[in-house]
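Q: I'm teaching a short session on how sequence maps to structure, and I want students to see two examples side by side rather than one. Could you give me a first protein with its sequence written out and its structure tokens following it? Keep the formatting plain so it prints cleanly on a handout.
A: Of course. Example one:
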Amino acid sequence: MLNDIRKNKSFISIVNLIGRIFSFLPPNIITTISLIVVFFSGYYYYLGLAHIGAIILALSGFFDLVDGSVAKYTNRTTILGGFLDSTFDRIGDGIVLLGIGLSYDLTICFIIMIGAYLISYMRAKGEALGVKVMGIGIGERAERILIIFVFSFINLELGLYVLLIVVYITVLTRFYYISKNLTKT
């Protein structure tokens, strides 16, 4: 859903500008900075300071956007860079959910994390089998981060239940979509 914004011309212009501004840094260093920053987000969530955790999570998300825009702008996109980005995203997801879980509810965060990892795995496996999966479901990574961010300022415990529902609707949607497309081949 939010991935559709990437096709918007205004958004593309902003991303290109960001790529120019940060082009002095290697993209993989920016990816690593994003990972380091997300550890602080998880730590503040663990301390029960959801507002600070959310702001730091947004900063990490900004760096996660910047790495790709710098790579494209400087013509330094690599398979390794894509692999690092995906891997570090999964680590970051786990760190934030662990921090929230240790402060609020570890069981629900663990169940959410399994679903979030399934969403990522199903996309990778589905696409490896020839099924285009990006954009399928209501809870891709950007939506999950947005839910955590918004509910960090409203009621994070309620947000966890919203996130749980969104994650498993996405898992079921992807499972059905991929299964349906694989039976056609």
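Q: Perfect. Now a second example for contrast.
A: Example two:
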Amino acid sequence: MTQPFGHLDDAGEARMVDVTEKPVTVRTATAQGMVTCPPHVVVLLRDGRIPKGDVLAVARIAGIAAAKRTPELLPLAHVIGVHGVVVDLEVVDAGVLVNATVRTADRTGVEMEALTAVAVAALAVVDMVKGVDKSVAIADVRLLAKSGGRSGEWRRSEA
């Protein structure tokens, strides 16, 4: 017999999973995404010449703020204590690589918080550079790793 999906009740209706009885454990999740940019935008980013200002600083703060507001955006996400958020952005030849790691000591994981941080940081990059080139795009937002909780450690295996 298969385990029922935890976000559905007996009638198949969506519900928030009750995590009251779960133990508090340290949990971490890391996500990544890419903002693809044409070469002339990469040059402007590297030279700090984007007209709107410091793209990476704005995106970093946007990602941190987003991680803390995830339950407002995802209706079945739990309100948890987000105890640490690190958002790193790196200008690479293809654009801007965005990484976020979120940590908590709580009853449920922070995968959605890490993914939300990456997605919103990437959106902030797009917002900051769209006046220079509207062809920028967000790609490959994905979970890289998580630890803690009942399921323990998980790492994406890249082929």
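Q: What should students look for in example two?
A: Point them to this: Residues 37-147 form a domain with the Alpha-Beta Plaits fold (CATH 3.30.70.640). Also worth mentioning: Residues 111-129 form the longest helix (19 residues).
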